[in-house]
Design brief:
Layout: H1 11-23, H2 28-38, H3 43-56, E1 59-62, E2 69-72, H4 76-91, H5 96-106, H6 111-127
Antiparallel strand pairs: 1-2
Length: about 130
């Protein structure tokens, strides 16, 4: 299912999605344990958020066992694409170039990252010929 069919996730929902994308299908307890290492949060808060995300269609839930297993129903890539498109449109007046220049101007990219960016730009140039 495409990410644009789902509401834009909140910051807390993105944290849960990040755990599920990295771990794969998990129980609420497992997700909560990962989140609790990063910030103070209650188990019931994690449970409620995951239930809401299930209702929104952002998570799938397997109820065949006593302990429910949740997994992301949206991909990391689709979610990144959705959020990035919105950011470019709202913050940078639709200019991807402005986003890239702002990012590189305020974030120190490693030599490896810069090399990947150069390679990608060269691929784009070759594909337009």
């Amino acid at each position: 299912m495409a990410a644009d069919k789902h509401p834009r996730p909140t910051e807390s929902e993105l944290e849960i999605l990040q755990v599920l994308w990295e771990r794969g299908p998990s129980t609420v307890r497992e997700v909560h344990e990962v989140l609790a290492r990063q910030k103070e949060t209650g188990y019931t808060t994690t449970l409620k958020l995951m239930q809401i995300m299930h209702d929104k269609g952002t998570l799938r839930r397997d109820t065949s066992a006593r302990t429910h297993i949740y997994e992301a129903s949206v991909s990391r890539e689709d979610t990144q694409h959705q959020l990035l498109d919105r950011m470019i449109h709202t913050l940078f007046s639709g200019s991807a170039a402005s986003l890239v220049m702002q990012t590189l101007g305020h974030h120190r990219a490693s030599a490896g990252e810069l090399e990947k960016i150069k390679d990608y730009l060269q691929q784009l140039e070759r594909s337009k010929k």
